[in-house]
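Let us work through a complete example step by step.
Step 1: write down the sequence.
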Amino acid sequence: AAIARGRIKNPARVVYSVSPALFTKDPESGLDLRHDSAYWVSGVRVIGNDFSPGDEAGVDITSYALPDHTPLLNSIPLEMGGNLDVPRDVCGDNPVMNSNDIWMLSGQDWIGFDDSSLKNAFSATLRGIGEVSVDAARMGLDVTRSIAVSANTDSDVLLRIEGDWPANVNISTGNGVTPVCPEAGVVEVSLVEGDITFTISPGQAQDCAR
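Step 2: predict the structure and record it as tokens.
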């Protein structure tokens, strides 16, 4: 049966793990195989140069400007079950299952999404990442209005935000306001390890920090 919803090209949330040990670069053939992008996330650069199989870094970024970012869940009450008397398993009657087991069921039932809280904002959790780019347009962000950003990192990260920016923007944090000139449609923000929140707003000043 066909999937009615179709392919989602711009999801509200991108969770992507990078395994740098799998990257392959062969100067002789020109082969440069790397997995460093997914949907509107690109240019994921992992910190370090020497990697072993199993080493991973990753991004978890959510755009609150796109629908389907907040799931609606309904708690399932605790339920006792078993197949002491009737052959069944946790999914229902099953004539081949009579293992004399007793179990408890609890969980959450997904019933859709709450799209009433759309806002011009995104959040990012970055692990083992030195640099990453995001596409503001594909994230549904409006670069002509203020964009709220919150991030949590385990290292210093260069965050590159691509978009059709105005001539200059202001980066506002708890430490003040810094004018920044976008270059080639990119606003670069240096994130310091830990938690940080800031706002990117259309700038008024003529001078920009570079």
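Step 3: interpret the result. The two ends are 54 Å apart (CA to CA).
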